[in-house]
Amino acid sequence: MLEELRRHAQETYGEERSAEATLQGALDAAATAVWRVSHEPLEPLGNEPLPTHA
After folding, report:
1. pTM of the model
2. Helix (DSSP H) and strand (DSSP E) numbers for the chain
3. What's the start-to-end Cα distance of the chain, in Å?
4. How many other CB atoms sit within 10 Å of the CB of residue 5?
5. pLDDT of 6-34, one tens digit each?
6. Residues 12-48 as b or e (16 or more Cβ within 10 Å = b)
7. What dihedral do alpha carbons 11, 17, 18, 22 form, nearest 10°?
8. For 32-53, how does the pLDDT look when each residue is reduced to its tens digit (9 = 90+)?
9. Contact of 33 with 1, CB cutoff 8 Å
10. Exposure of 1 in the CB half-sphere (CA atoms within 13 A)
11. What is the pLDDT of residue 31?
12. Which of 25, 30, 36, 42, by CA, is between 20 and 30 Å from 19?
């Protein structure tokens, strides 16, 4: 995922801009977020209460 994000950043911003530390940090954070979400269970754990409309 990270390599794909980096490739798209390079296509969008160019090689010099996409190598900046700020952009690389944002790409790392985005890839980490995608990885975490992909490892979360799709079903709720246990007997979680249903949301109420208060």
Report:
1. 0.66
2. 3, 0
3. 39
4. 18
5. 999 999 999 999 999 999 999 999 999 99
6. eeeeeebeeeebeeebeeebeeeeeeeeeeeeeeeee
7. -150
8. 999 999 988 777 666 767 777 7
9. no
10. 12
11. 95
12. 36
Contacts of 23 (CB under 8 A, 6+ apart): 9, 13, 17
Q: In which residue are the tokens 């490892």 written?
A: 39
Token pair in block for residue 38:
């992909």
The residue to which tokens 């996409």 are assigned: 18
Task: For tokens 């246990």, name the residue.
Answer: 46
Q: Which of 35, 37, 6, 7 has the alpha carbon at shortest distance from 23? A: 6
